[in-house]
Q: What sequence folds into this?
């Protein structure tokens, strides 16, 4: 719960002594495992906050929600969550964000710099962890502080900066913005990168072949020729890339 409240780049810490005060003022829907339907049911009984749920008898909660659900809700309202925690578990998403400390408007034609910076950081971090992502999310904030989030599935899982940048540019252009502030990008649906035999993690392009343009347009660049030692039937010692 504290992690969801933390702003990007900050940490919210709840001490053991302050746990009761922290939970007491939270709406009941903020508790893990409580969805809109359960929250409406609890609110109809006047249990609209975590503090009131914690003060309610266990038998009352079990009569409202059932034996198991009532027991789990009672425990979580008291700050006890039995969900197992895996240390150093890989996050399902990798995020990069930029904080703006002044009210500056980033016009659409000047938006390339923050987009490129964000996708370069995401690509570098994915490759460092030998991971690829299958989708990209773009966070845009307007002058009135409202936020828009857009996502796009990538043609194939990748950690290639050019592919991530092309997807980010496409999302930004699709919004048709004239004045907006690009605040962050997130690489979602992560997974391990495929490894070449005896080599570093593969970094496929958006179409999975050499020389393909990131945006899907234009002509692909010719693959470089490779020289090998001369021999019979070797015309000049040049050949195309190995298939």
A:
């Amino acid at each position: 719960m504290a992690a969801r409240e933390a702003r990007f780049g900050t940490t919210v810490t709840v001490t053991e002594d302050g746990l009761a005060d922290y939970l007491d003022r939270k709406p009941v829907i903020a508790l893990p495992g409580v969805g809109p339907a359960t929250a409406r049911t609890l609110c109809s009984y006047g249990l609209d906050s975590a503090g009131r749920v914690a003060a309610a008898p266990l038998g009352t909660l079990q009569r409202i929600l059932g034996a198991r659900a009532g027991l789990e809700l009672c425990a979580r309202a008291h700050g006890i969550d039995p969900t197992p925690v895996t240390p150093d578990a890989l996050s399902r998403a990798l995020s990069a964000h930029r904080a703006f400390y002044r009210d500056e408007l980033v016009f659409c034609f000047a938006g390339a710099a923050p987009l490129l910076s964000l996708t370069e950081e995401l690509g570098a971090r994915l490759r460092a962890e030998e991971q690829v992502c299958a989708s990209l999310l773009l966070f845009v904030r307007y002058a009135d502080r409202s936020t828009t989030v857009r996502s796009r599935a990538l043609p194939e899982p990748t950690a290639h900066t050019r592919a991530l940048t092309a997807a980010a540019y496409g999302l930004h252009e699709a919004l048709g913005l004239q004045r907006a502030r690009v605040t962050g990008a997130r690489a979602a649906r992560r997974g391990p990168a495929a490894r070449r035999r005896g080599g570093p993690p593969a970094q496929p392009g958006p179409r999975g072949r050499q020389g393909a343009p990131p945006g899907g347009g234009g002509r692909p660049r010719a693959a470089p020729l490779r020289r090998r030692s001369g021999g019979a039937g070797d015309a000049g010692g040049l050949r195309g890339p190995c298939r």
About this structure: The chain has two domains: 2-77, 93-211. Helices lie at 2-5, 19-24, 36-44, 50-55, 58-65, 67-77, 112-128, 161-175. Residues 103-110, 196-243 have pLDDT under 50 and may be disordered.
